[in-house]
Specification:
Number of helices of chain A: 6
CATH class of the largest domain in chain A: Alpha Beta
Membrane topology (chains A, B): Peripheral membrane protein
Number of domains of chain A: 2
Protein name (chains A, B): N-acyl-aromatic-L-amino acid amidohydrolase
CATH architecture of the largest domain in chain A: 3-Layer(aba) Sandwich
Strand content of chain A: 15-25%
CATH superfamily of the largest domain in chain A: Zn peptidases
Helix content of chain A: 10-25%
CATH topology of the largest domain in chain A: Aminopeptidase
EC number (chains A, B): 3.5.1.114
Structural class of chain A: alpha/beta
Radius of gyration of chain A: 19 Å
Distance between the termini of chain A: 26 Å
Largest interface: A-B, 34 and 34 residues
Shape of chain A: globular
Enzyme class (chains A, B): hydrolase
Oligomer: homodimer
Number of strands of chain A: 14
InterPro entries (chains A, B): AspA/AstE_fam (IPR050178), Aspartoacylase (IPR016708), AstE_AspA_cat (IPR055438), Aste_AspA_hybrid_dom (IPR007036)
């Protein structure tokens, strides 16, 4: 699909089944509270969006404990290997839950999988609203992104591309129809276990605009979009940050990057100016990842179903 | 002591034993990293401060797991009842640890207790550097506070008085010599489980200024100080916050306070304009406390050992 000529309009099937998930990490509260709110009977209005819109709390046990996960990170359990491996009785809770979700929303890689999965996350980094997707030619996802950019001009918004194969993709959104509409909106900064009204409101607005776009798309109206995508290289350190809150600012060689606990400054040693993001994401301390880096590049997005092409800067993934 | 005439200079014994504690809550990382840094041999310099300065990680198991506590909140375990009650084998880990710490730094209420306990905390609220003490006439503590205010003029700083009796006082700092030098500097905003360089640096600087003041005090030089103290009333709710980050701004009757998840605004219904703090502190969600309120009042602080009196606005505690 990615090799197709972008000046040809793309015809895509209707998005008849979609899912909005919150609480995949139980202490990322915006999605938890938003899904709970949307599940209230008075809010389950029909708006011409997907014929079937499923709202769910992905990891209810972790939500109850207000912790990222109970036994292991649920959002790393959706590889083919983990979903299809032997299930022993003492396996982590999240392995069982991942299989349940795969039955409900997948099976991953099959025609039965839902058409669109939007999995809501928070970050302690100052990343604004950030889409992360495994594909840089997921037109549905890119068009939704562009629609949100237009509708929410005051919210900083980026599209990040993680270049991981379907087989190796590990997150909940990867069990949706591959190549279309699987994305993780991250929004921050917000401490895990906390909820801030501005972050919650932006997420609620974003989800509503996504539903509006799907509704418009399903009705056959055309939309033109474009996007920005990166992928990231992790630093194996978690010193203090001078770059705090400077997500998506250009980091130039020789610029101050870290501050050690004794007060010394460590400079960025790379040869190329790059964009830092996920700066000081709390949940990545354990992995020793202090920040991620991205190169910006331009992608072209075809119109749906029949309009002109447009192009924009995107962020390129840098493998480790 | 509090009834004494403030125009009489106060003569106090030397502060010969002091403790700086971090990690009483294992996911409040500024204190954890600062204590670790200060424990390094190259940083254990003699600077004429307390004859014996003990640095310790209060809850090493919680620190290891990067969680507030393992079984129960350690910083609620230092009441007389909990420290002296019967110890069953299946009791929470923190009860045992509280007793260990009481043996090391206390016993609470005894002459053997250390002269000064400074227990380092973080908050997700936007509180700057905030001293919390059980006394509004703890001259040592007030003088240290005033010294920090002078030395760090760019750091917002407040002194909060929690009017709790010695017997009912529950936090680690309460096992130091009662009425003198027991305080919890809170500093924020910082997500729990994260470390920000500006917050870490301010805490390090604050602890150094405290040591300098103690050194100066022990050498017999005089210091004049004053302070600001509040105490708080908790709201039994944890809706979204419009007042986010507005800690210590005056909250007037009828002003917007909360936003509900459906988008409605809830106004402050109190009859009196008060100061809100601990706004959206993550760890207080479980208790249903969304913020605390304080009234400001003026306290007078006598000189040590022989100088003039000064007075300042302080915050008054409001009981629930």
């Amino acid at each position: 699909l990615c090799q197709m000529q972008v000046d040809e309009p793309v015809r895509l099937p209707r998005l008849s089944r979609a899912a909005v998930c919150g609480g995949t990490h139980g202490n990322e509260l915006s999605g938890v509270y938003l899904v709970r709110e949307m599940l209230k009977p008075e809010n389950r209005k029909e708006d011409g969006g997907p014929a079937s819109l499923l709202m769910l709390l992905s990891n209810p046990r972790a939500v109850q404990q207000c912790t990222r996960y109970v036994d292991t990170d649920l959002n790393r359990c959706f590889t083919h290997a983990t979903l299809n491996g032997p299930a022993s009785e003492g396996a982590p809770y999240e392995i069982f839950r991942a299989r349940e979700l795969n039955n409900l929303l997948g099976p991953k890689g099959s025609r039965a999988a839902v058409d669109l999965i939007c999995d809501l996350h928070n970050t302690t980094a100052n990343m604004g609203l950030c889409f992360i997707a495994y594909s840089d030619c997921d037109w549905v996802c890119l068009h939704i992104f562009r629609h949100l950019q237009k509708q929410m001009p005051d919210t900083p918004m980026r599209f990040i591309h993680f270049d991981v194969s379907t087989k190796e993709s590990y997150s909940l959104d990867s069990i949706g129809k591959h190549g279309f509409g699987e994305f993780l909106p991250f929004i921050g900064p917000q401490p895990h276990g906390c909820i801030k009204s501005n972050i919650y409101t932006a997420m609620r607005e974003g989800v509503q605009h996504m539903r509006d776009w799907v509704s418009c798309f399903n009705s056959g109206e055309s939309n033109v979009s474009m996007a920005q995508l990166p992928v990231c290289r992790g630093f194996k350190t978690s010193k203090c940050f001078l770059s705090q809150d400077r997500d998506f600012c250009l980091l130039r060689p020789g610029e101050p990057l870290f501050q050690t606990f004794s007060g010394e400054t460590v400079k960025y040693q790379g040869a190329e100016a790059l964009y830092a993001f996920f700066i000081n994401e709390c949940a990545y301390y354990k992995k020793g990842i202090a920040l991620s880096l991205a190169r910006k590049r331009r992608v072209s997005v075809p119109s749906i179903p029949s309009v002109s092409i447009s192009s924009r800067f995107i962020y390129i993934y840098l493998s480790m």
